[in-house]
Specification:
Length: about 425
């Protein structure tokens, strides 16, 4: 079968020619009127301003340090004038004390001691108190927790970081005098990245039991365990003439906005709740600081806490010392005024388990290394370094470090700390004091 072309009749050729003449050739130029009509008939893809200039994303949630500092997170120049309506803050008082004091040990020197004395064992021992008597045990009353203090690292450039700590009592007096305090180490390590000038230092803030603030100056770091995130501080209250100057500066109302870390990040999925700013001084501890006599110039000793070296089994009830800056109407009862106008509470919790340094589950009563302690509930920012106390005996069984994700089981975030036997590693064994 073959195909051949057949000529069309005349009337058919005319109709085809009339149809094709109405279709415009693609290259035929169009007039403005035809172009406008075509745009009105055919929708084209257009670039809207929302594509060229996208809307900014919503602001991130506030960091724990921003919540405690009122949202301000900028360093203050040493000579910057305070705002006319700036509220009196404990930050300014500490900064004034740092800038005015002479002869104190600086943060670079403390960091050098922290590195050089890592793993050192003190010649004195720490008394074993698994079942302390009534006058020694911790009571979870409505009043502020005695023996629990605030540890503040500050520079003259306006950077202030704070965590918690507590006093312990060795079996014999240490050389150099002062008291020993247990606290976390990561807040001090964070000061390595801070611009540290000639004026800097670490302080221990405590109450004398009568609503007066006592500022102890840290003079040395006798021992530290960087891997466990725990260290010892030796501090003495100021005995020179600069102490009344600190009290007079309380009236000046110098304001500062400290620079803090966020929630802090570390390896192994750990999140450290540290570096919370010193809260504003608006609580009962500062009702009587209008005169120099309001700040104690004596040397009262901070009450020490008993330490139980034996670990609790999972499921045991504990109380952890939590702090916060402000209270909301939905907060449960039990919060009491604390240092710097903040609030503290012995929060009821539970031991969830133990982990070794590799993150594997460890059990008490075995040869497993109980390197870290998991507990609930989650600690609040600024609670790092505070004690975890056995609810039954009233003795310290651990130190709060922060929070982390439990990798052994998918259970979410957990409270993270170290058992109290870690504290004993920095002291000599009982009966072997002073023997090297």
């Amino acid at each position: 079968m073959s195909l051949r072309s057949v000529p069309l009749p005349r009337h058919v050729r005319c109709s085809v020619r009339a149809c094709t003449s109405s279709v415009r050739h693609p290259r035929t130029p169009r007039t403005h009127a035809s172009t406008s009509a075509l745009h009105a008939q055919r929708p084209y893809a257009t670039i809207t301003p929302s594509i060229l200039e996208p809307r900014p994303p919503p602001p991130p949630p506030p960091l724990p340090s921003d919540i405690l500092s009122g949202g301000e997170n900028r360093p203050l120049a040493p000579d910057a004038p305070p705002p006319p309506d700036a509220p009196d803050s404990l930050n300014a008082r500490i900064l004034h004390y740092v800038r005015e004091e002479r002869g104190g040990i600086s943060l670079p020197s403390l960091l050098a001691q922290y590195d050089d004395r890592a793993g050192d064992v003190l010649p004195s021992a720490l008394k074993y108190e698994p079942s302390p008597p009534a006058e020694r045990r911790v009571w979870f009353s409505d009043r502020a927790a005695p023996g629990v203090v605030a540890i503040v690292h500050a520079t003259g450039e306006g950077i202030v970081k704070v965590c918690s700590g507590f006093a312990v009592e060795p079996t014999r007096a240490e050389d150099g005098g002062g008291q020993l305090f247990v606290t976390c180490a990561h807040t001090l390590e964070e000061m390595r990245r801070a611009p540290v000038g000639a004026k800097s230092g670490t302080f221990v803030l405590a109450s004398d039991g009568e609503g007066n603030l006592v500022v102890h100056r840290v003079t040395s770091i006798p021992s530290a365990l960087p891997r466990s995130d725990v260290m010892l501080l030796r501090a003495t209250p100021p005995r020179d003439a600069s102490q009344p100057a600190l009290a007079s500066s309380f009236e000046s109302g110098i304001e500062s906005s400290p620079t803090l870390h966020g929630a802090g990040a570390s390896t192994s999925g750990e999140q450290i709740c540290s570096g919370a700013p010193v809260p504003h001084a608006s609580g009962p501890l500062f009702r009587h600081v209008a005169s120099p006599s309001a700040v104690s110039t004596t040397a009262p000793r901070v009450p020490t806490l008993p330490v139980n070296p034996y670990p609790l089994h999972p499921g045991a009830r504990v109380r952890a010392h939590f702090v916060r800056d402000k209270l909301s109407p939905v907060d449960e009862e039990g919060w009491t005024p604390w240092i710097g106008g903040g609030w503290s509470k012995w929060v009821r919790g539970e031991v969830l388990g133990y982990r070794d340094f590799a993150g594997k589950e460890a059990k008490p009563g075995t040869y497993d290394a109980l390197s870290h302690l998991l507990f609930e509930p989650l600690p609040t920012p600024g609670s790092s370094g505070g004690p975890i106390v056995d609810e039954e005996s009233g003795a310290v069984v651990g130190v709060v470090l922060g929070t982390r994700m439990d990798s052994a089981r998918i259970d979410g975030m957990r409270g993270w700390g170290v058992p109290s036997e870690t504290i004993l590693e920095m002291f000599s064994l009982p009966g072997l004091e002073g023997k090297r």
